Amino acid sequence: MPASSPRPGVRPSASPGSTRSARLLGGLLIGAGITHFVAPRTFDAMVPRALPGSPRAWTRASGAAELAIGAAVAAPRTRRLGALAAAGLFVAVFPANVKMAADWRDRPLPLRTAALARLPLQVPLVRWALRVHRAAQTERS
């Protein structure tokens, strides 16, 4: 019996495209999470002043969240919940991206452009996470 044919009682595996997309999203989140710990100053500056506590604490917490969510998205058993958490995270960090764009108005053009480009980028990131969530839900059915 070929490996791709369904067997009674065995769920078909995820399609290669959906698995690849989920792993890529997970890797993106893990990479971003690592960056929070390796180069925290940039992230500290993005923390809105209205939040209680130190910016570094928020940087560490958001980095840890990205690491955990990235790992959850990458793992098939936790992918569905992880992808939903990723969509929520992308929405939650939007105020920090707005703050960064406002704060960087006087920076050199390449930095201003990068800060402004982050704003509309959140939309495809949320949609990507929701697609991974839906694909994981379909694979579990």
Outline of the structure:
The protein is mainly α and 141 residues long. 75% of the residues lie in helices and 0% in strands. The protein has one domain (17-140).
Helix and strand composition category: mainly alpha
> Care to count the β-strands?
0
Q: What's the helical proportion of residues?
A: over 70%
Overall pLDDT: 87
Specify the overall morphology: globular
State which percent range the strand residues make up: under 5%
Calculate the terminal CA-CA distance, rounded to whole Å.
Answer: 23 Å
Order of helices and strands: HHHHHH
Largest sheet: none
Rounded radius of gyration (Å): 18 Å
Number of helices: 6
Count of distinct structural domains: 1
In the predicted model, the low-confidence regions spanning at least 5 consecutive residues are 1-12
Q: Could you walk me through the main structural features you see in this protein, from its secondary elements to its overall organization?
A:
The N terminus is likely disordered. Helix content is 75%, strand content 0%. It contains six helices and no strands. It has 141 residues and is an all-alpha fold. The protein is globular, with a radius of gyration of 18 Å. α1 crosses α2, α3 packs antiparallel against α4 and α5 runs antiparallel to α6. The protein has one domain.
Describe the SSE topology:
Layout: H1 16-38, H2 40-46, H3 55-74, H4 79-92, H5 94-103, H6 109-140
